[in-house]
């Protein structure tokens, strides 16, 4: 991938975001493009100058780009932007006001505008361009019911494999990524992990989950309200003092992921409680599993990561209790199981509640692809993660008592 061009190197072109899209939303819209190493074929639908610039910035050496602008006059400034680039870029970019006779077999299609109506009809024009594993990324307003639950889009919603609510946008929007045919699980091993809008950057190596931003904001607001209502009381100091440690609970550090295709990485930080063989018929594939159990204290990072690259084929939600995560009774706690098909076999991760943990966040979707080490959820306030591997197909690399770090520690390795 080429590094982003510094705006000061081309003062005639000023990158701006699409109408209604800020930086966080634009990055989410282009995330399927930036995670794909290529060579790939890309279609950009729209003439927004900021999105055009961003897409041109990240084109790889063997990528091809089709920019489809419906209005012939609007295509003129787009062609000028492309022409201002080096030959390295221009020879791989086509700008057209008609797709007839142009590129098909698209890997990633991007709709560079907020779709406010007739979404199904507009995407029907893009769908024939996609190849078997192709994905289209588009944006809709987040309002009403759609603010926290995506509004259904006829003929499209059932194909959405990932969507992100971007509250750091004015107004808030929802970014969707749809794939109309099943993707090969092996494609996931080629993809880079996505940093979702729910992971808010604090520095180059440290993020905080949006849950932490919200919790700190609520506590800060409570402290301010208490101070206004009871100015002579020191009661405001309690929520103010809690804001920072509660936010720190949701920290989301950058992690370097081991480049070993057969490796299985930790799904979370914590201490290994057990490495054992169990029987479980719920997940298909096999009934005999090697299970590695990790306990998370309230001091551990609670962001969960995919232990392998693969396709999410099922998500199983189980009701239960809230026993202490270290106890045997935790086996029957509330849990969510994410079933992943990888190039080396089926892998299951369990997010399990504990005595204090009462809330599981799982942002994975059935049909979606997860890169190894990719963030996909979290458990709030102390919990446990279990990783299930086919018994006889993988060897554990950790033992009870070992400390592990999500995405960075090798839990196991598939046999050759």
Question: Mind explaining what this structure looks like?
Answer:
This protein is an alpha+beta fold and 416 residues long. It folds into three domains: 7-181, Rossmann fold; 207-249; 258-414, Glucose Permease (Domain IIA). Helices cover 19% and strands 33% of the residues. The protein is built from eight helices and 24 strands. The chain has helices at 23-29, 31-35, 49-58, 72-83, 87-90, 119-126, 210-229, 237-249; strands spanning 41-45, 64-68, 93-96, 106-114, 130-141, 160-166, 173-178, 199-201, 206-209, 251-253, 263-265, 270-279, 288-296, 303-305, 310-318, 335-342, 345-353, 359-362, 369-370, 375-380, 383-390, 394-396, 403-404, 410-414. The two termini are 31 Å apart.
Determine and state the CATH class of the largest domain: Alpha Beta
Unreliably modeled segments = 1-17
When the domains are counted, the total is 3
Major sheet summary line: 8 strands, antiparallel
Content-based structural category = alpha+beta
Q: What would you report as the Rg, rounded to the nearest angstrom?
A: 23 Å
* Overall strand count: 24
Q: How would you name the CATH homologous superfamily of the largest domain? A: Vaccinia Virus protein VP39
Q: Estimate the strand proportion.
A: 25-35%
Strands side by side in the biggest sheet: 19-15-16-17-21-13-12-23
Kindly identify the CATH topology of the largest domain.
Rossmann fold
Please tell me what the overall shape is: globular
Task: Count up the helices.
Answer: 8
CATH architecture grouping of the largest domain: 3-Layer(aba) Sandwich
Mean pLDDT: 88
Percent of residues in helices comes to 10-25%
């Amino acid at each position: 991938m080429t590094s982003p061009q510094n705006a000061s190197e081309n003062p005639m072109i000023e990158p701006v975001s699409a109408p209604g899209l800020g930086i966080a939303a634009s990055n989410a819209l282009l995330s399927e493009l930036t995670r794909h190493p290529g060579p790939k074929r890309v279609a950009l639908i729209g003439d927004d100058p900021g999105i055009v610039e961003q897409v041109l910035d990240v084109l790889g050496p063997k990528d091809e780009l089709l920019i489809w602008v419906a209005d012939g006059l609007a295509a003129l400034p787009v062609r000028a932007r492309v022409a201002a680039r080096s030959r390295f870029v221009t020879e791989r970019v086509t700008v057209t006001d008609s797709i007839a006779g142009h590129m098909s077999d698209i890997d990633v299609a991007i709709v560079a505008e907020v779709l406010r109506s007739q979404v199904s009809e507009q995407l029907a024009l893009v769908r024939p361009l996609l190849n078997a594993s192709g994905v289209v990324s588009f944006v809709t307003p987040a309002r009403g019911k759609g603010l926290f639950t995506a509004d259904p889009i006829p003929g499209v919603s059932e194909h959405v494999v990932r969507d992100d609510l971007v509250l750091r946008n004015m107004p808030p929007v929802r970014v969707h990524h749809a794939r109309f045919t099943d993707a090969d699980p092996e494609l996931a091993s080629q993809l880079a992990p996505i940093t979702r809008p729910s992971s808010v950057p604090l520095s180059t190596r440290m993020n905080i989950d949006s849950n932490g931003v919200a919790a700190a904001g609520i506590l800060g607001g409570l402290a301010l309200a208490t101070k206004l209502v009871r100015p002579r009381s020191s009661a405001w100091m309690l929520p103010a003092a809690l804001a920072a440690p509660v936010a720190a609970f949701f920290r989301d550090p950058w992690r370097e992921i081991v480049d070993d295709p057969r490796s299985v990485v930790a799904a979370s930080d914590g201490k290994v409680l057990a490495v054992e063989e169990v029987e479980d018929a719920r997940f298909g594939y096999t009934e005999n599993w090697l299970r590695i159990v990790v306990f998370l204290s309230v001091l551990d990072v609670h962001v969960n990561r995919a232990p392998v690259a693969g396709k999410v084929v099922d998500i199983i939600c189980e009701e239960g209790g809230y026993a202490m995560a270290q106890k045997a009774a935790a086996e029957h706690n509330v849990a969510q199981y994410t079933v992943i098909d990888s190039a080396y076999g089926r892998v299951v991760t369990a997010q399990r509640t504990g005595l204090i943990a009462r809330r599981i966040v799982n942002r994975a979707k059935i049909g979606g692809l997860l890169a190894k080490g990719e963030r996909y959820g979290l458990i709030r306030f102390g919990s446990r993660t279990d990783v299930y591997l086919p018994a006889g197909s993988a060897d554990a690399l950790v033992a009870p008592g070992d400390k592990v770090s999500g995405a960075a520690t090798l839990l196991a390795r598939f046999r050759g």
